Automatic annotation (TrEMBL):
GO biological process assignments: signal transduction
Entry keyword annotation includes Nucleotide-binding: yes
Any one GO MF annotation of this record: GTP binding
InterPro entries: P-loop_NTPase (IPR027417), Small_GTP-bd (IPR005225), Small_GTPase (IPR001806), Small_GTPase_Ras-type (IPR020849)
One GO cellular component, as annotated: plasma membrane
Protein's organism: Hebeloma cylindrosporum
Keyword list, A-Z: GTP-binding, Nucleotide-binding
Membrane topology of this protein: Lipid-anchor
Recorded superkingdom: Eukaryota
Localization (cell): Cell membrane
Protein name (database record): Ras-like protein
């Protein structure tokens, strides 16, 4: 496979899928990585990398599915620290999972040295279950706006907006990394040692 690459280098993005129990974290991860809906209800999904071209730039997306169980608290702090972007997932059929989103958002910011903002997207999953809906689309939108995040409704079951959710999060990370205050000091001061000529492009052979 030969990909035309208008990118200066292959950038890896560490995305974390987080949310209340049964919200569909594993199903979203499997649907994104393998383009299928898992029949076997996995507790946790291990295979987790995908190469995408987003806005003509190659992105190696590393997705971490997480456990909802509070028993994994040490692991939780670890991935909250290392994650570069977070999908805050709730199920439109579960108000409990919706109410968890704000708590998770706060927890992530706390782990990021109390930053005011960090790349996150609010994902309202199971939008195919309209007849079981407990959380309205506007409630989801309002919450996301309040948290300063993008919002998207998905169905992991039917693959609706799943790629868009992950890709939009990568876009948020790119935007965030361009802000001077979120870049390493040497780069912000114009001392980036990895600068290339503006016209650099290449091909990635897999
Ligand atoms: N109809 C429908 N069912 C879904 C969707 N996403 C997940 N499910 C179902 O919801 C249940 C929970 O999905 P999981 O992907 O295991 O959710 P999780 O958040 O990983 O759950 P835990 O890891 O067990 O906390 C499973 O029975 C899935 O088949 C969806 O978009 N639509
Ligand atoms: Mg799971």
């Amino acid at each position: 496979m030969v990909l035309p690459v208008n990118s200066r280098f292959l950038k890896e993005y560490k995305l974390v899928v987080i949310g209340g129990r049964g919200a569909g974290r594993s199903a979203l991860t499997v649907q994104f990585i393998e383009n299928r809906f898992p029949d076997d209800d996995p507790d946790y999904y291990y295979g987790n990398r995908k190469l995408c071209v987003i806005d003509e730039e190659v992105a190696l997306i590393d997705v971490l599915d997480t456990f909802a169980d509070e028993a994994y608290i040490a692991m939780r702090e670890q991935y909250m620290r290392t994650g570069e972007g977070f999908l805050l997932v709730y199920s439109v059929t579960s108000r409990q999972s919706f109410e968890k989103v704000s708590t998770l958002h706060q927890e992530i910011l706390r782990c990021k040295d109390n930053l005011n903002s960090f790349p996150m997207i609010v994902v309202a999953n199971k939008c195919d279950l309209e007849h079981e809906r407990m959380v309205g689309i506007n409630e989801g939108r309002d919450l996301a706006k309040h948290l300063g995040c993008k919002f998207i409704e998905t169905s992991a079951k039917y693959g609706v907006n799943v790629d868009e959710a992950f890709m939009n999060l990568v876009r948020e990370i790119r935007k965030y990394n361009k802000k001077p205050q979120s870049r390493p000091k040497a780069v912000a001061a114009g001392k980036d040692q990895h600068q290339h000529s503006p016209g650099f492009c290449g091909c990635l052979v897999l």
